[in-house]
Automatic annotation (TrEMBL):
Name assigned to this protein: tRNA (guanine-N(1)-)-methyltransferase
Keyword tRNA processing: yes
MF terms in GO: tRNA (guanine(37)-N1)-methyltransferase activity
Organism listed in the record: Spiroplasma gladiatoris
Species classification: Bacteria, Bacillati, Mycoplasmatota, Mollicutes, Entomoplasmatales
Family to which this protein belongs: Belongs to the RNA methyltransferase TrmD family.
Its job: Specifically methylates guanosine-37 in various tRNAs.
Top EC class, one word: transferase
Coiled-coil stretches noted in the UniProt entry, renumbered to this chain: none
Length: 242
């Protein structure tokens, strides 16, 4: 996967992608990250990339020409062009999966300041948001997209690590424990120390359902649970009603 990030703040992107799992994915050549400084693509003097909006109003608006120049500089017929924006479709695990599978090159334009010239949308395939709140710019959002897509790419992390991720099958992940076995009188559930794989598997599936029921019951509405899982869920519901 190649990502081309069009940004006014290349250092912000650079510092994040040069650490940890993303750095390793680059070193292992599973991904490539091209950071494009929008100011290198303006024809205006003083590297201008934004201006006041027509009709009046506060704040500077990203101009269409530098953005289109930057896109045209990195676009190929395999590219998906994404614009970060609070008005976009809300990002989730299914979208991360879809993009990791279906695309080889993702261009991400980081929106900034008070907004962008509406005509930029004519050059964009997808407007994406990371949630219903407004950031000062799209850099954090672009890193969220890169991070969540990259960990799903083969060879980046062990595939078992994301097969049972939260949101997989619309369930949250089960609780996990590590050393020490006992901490201030609270012990790791015994079944996890038993070495009994079938019981551990069952305990973990119950943990997924309990976690989802307690923390994100909205996810269960969209879920097609198997018979065993439904039984666990019904027990939980009955317990709550008692
Ligand atoms: N830019 C500003 N706010 C944003 C958001 N919530 N998601 C993506 N890009 C943004």
């Amino acid at each position: 996967m190649k990502y081309s990030i069009i940004t006014l703040f290349p250092n912000l992107i650079n510092s994040y992608v040069n650490e940890s799992i993303i750095k390793r994915a680059i070193q292992k050549e599973r991904i490539e990250i091209e950071i494009i400084d929008l100011r290198d693509h303006t024809n205006y003097s003083h590297n201008q990339v934004d201006d006041y909006q027509f009709g009046g109003g506060k704040g500077m608006v990203l101009m269409v020409e530098p953005v289109v120049n930057a896109i045209e500089n990195c676009w190929t017929n395999e590219s998906l062009i994404v614009l970060t924006s609070p008005q976009g479709k809300t990002w989730n695990q299914n979208l991360a999966k879809k993009l990791s599978k279906e695309y080889k090159h993702i261009i991400i334009i980081c929106g900034h300041y008070e907004g962008f010239d509406e005509r930029i949308l004519d050059y964009v395939d997808m407007e994406l948001s990371i949630g219903d709140y407004v950031l000062t710019g799209g850099e954090l959002a672009s890193l969220v997209f890169i991070d969540s897509i990259t960990r799903l790419i083969d060879g980046v992390i062990q595939s078992e690590s994301h097969q049972n991720d939260s949101f997989e099958n619309n369930l949250l992940d089960h609780p996990v424990y590590t050393k020490p076995v006992n901490f201030r009188n609270k012990s790791v559930p015994e079944v996890l120390l038993s070495g009994h794989h079938a019981n551990i598997k069952k305990f973990r599936q119950e943990g997924r359902i309990i976690n989802t029921f307690n923390k994100r019951p909205d996810l269960l509405k969209e879920n097609k649970l198997c018979k065993e899982d439904l039984e666990i869920l019904n027990k939980l519901k009955n317990r709550k009603e008692e």
